[in-house]
Structure formats: structure tokens, C-alpha cells
Design goal:
This protein is about 25% helix and about 30% strand. It is of the alpha+beta class and about 160 residues long. A seven-stranded mixed beta sheet has the order 1-2-3-4-5-7-6, sandwiched between helices. The chain is globular and about 40 Å long. The protein starts with a strand and ends with a strand. About 30% of the residues are buried.
């Protein structure tokens, strides 16, 4: 089972993993205008407004992901967003992605989230499958991310 380490997105390991994530996204990107890299702002991923996690398995750093507080929903519900959930290729297929998403959901609940949202690209079919099987449902766009083609929401319940 993986373990998690809270880090700043400015941490060297986080920067390495994010760099690998962005490089992989550029290679498989589907959309006009090309993939746009945007490193996250460290201040947006600090408890209790967010967190950024490094996934460790068998003593190696194998992935990352975070959540951050965003604007409330149209109905005033507290909303957190999943960002940069990614695993190195050798770590895929072992349940680490689902475990990381579950850990991020737990932390969002602990921070007071009513809803968890995320955006993704249609080229990431495995990710979309993970999100749907984890209870996320498709919604209209909640942001103007030029890299996104699909948006999802999960209500946080007790």
C-alpha cells in the first residue's frame, strides 16, 4: 500500500514529479493550441486551504496529487479541486491512483469540502474511468482551463 508525504509544490521532489507529469501530458495531448503548462501556486496547497501529496511505494516517490480550495459552487457549497493527480508509468495498475484519490477526498472532507471537482482531458481515458468509478459525475465546465475537455464533481457525504 502506498504512503503519502505532504510537501510544498516548490519542493524539489514535487517539481520533478510535476515536470514529468507536464511532459507526459504534452506528448498525449488532444486539443487545439497545444498543451499549456502551468505550475501550481504553492500558497494554494497549504492546509487548511489545500494540500499537495507525494506518493511513496517501496521506498520510491512514484506520483503526486493535490487539492485546493476554489470558489464556492453556485449554491454556495464549499468546493475543493483535485489537481495534478499523476503516477509514474511503473506505478500504474497497482491501485495507487485510486488510493491517492481516496486520500485526497478524505483530506478535502477534513478541510470542510461539500464538493470535490476536477477537470481532465478526453485523452486520459483511464483517469476518466477512475473518476467515474469513484463516484464522480460529469458536469458542465466550472472553469476555463484550456487543457480540459471534461469536468467532474463528487458530493462529499458523511
Amino acid at each position: 500500500m502506498p504512503s503519502y508525504r505532504e510537501v510544498s509544490v516548490d519542493d524539489a521532489v514535487a517539481q520533478q514529479l510535476l515536470g514529468e507529469y507536464f511532459a507526459s501530458r504534452e506528448l498525449g495531448f488532444v486539443g487545439s493550441g497545444g498543451y499549456r503548462v502551468a505550475f501550481p501556486e504553492a500558497g494554494r496547497f497549504v492546509p487548511p486551504s489545500g494540500v499537495f501529496l507525494v506518493v511513496e511505494s517501496d521506498g520510491a516517490d512514484v506520483g503526486c496529487g493535490g487539492i485546493r480550495l476554489i470558489e464556492p459552487s453556485e449554491t454556495g457549497r464549499t468546493r475543493f479541486e483535485v489537481k495534478h493527480l499523476w503516477l509514474r508509468p511503473e506505478a500504474r495498475g497497482h491501485g495507487h491512483g485510486r488510493a491517492l484519490l481516496t486520500e485526497l477526498e478524505r483530506r478535502a472532507r477534513d478541510f470542510g469540502a461539500d464538493e470535490l471537482v476536477l477537470d481532465t482531458n478526453s485523452s486520459l481515458e483511464a483517469a476518466a474511468g477512475l473518476y467515474r468509478s469513484s463516484g464522480f459525475v460529469g458536469i458542465p465546465a466550472y472553469n476555463d482551463n484550456p487543457n480540459a475537455t471534461n469536468w467532474y464533481l463528487k458530493a462529499m457525504t458523511a
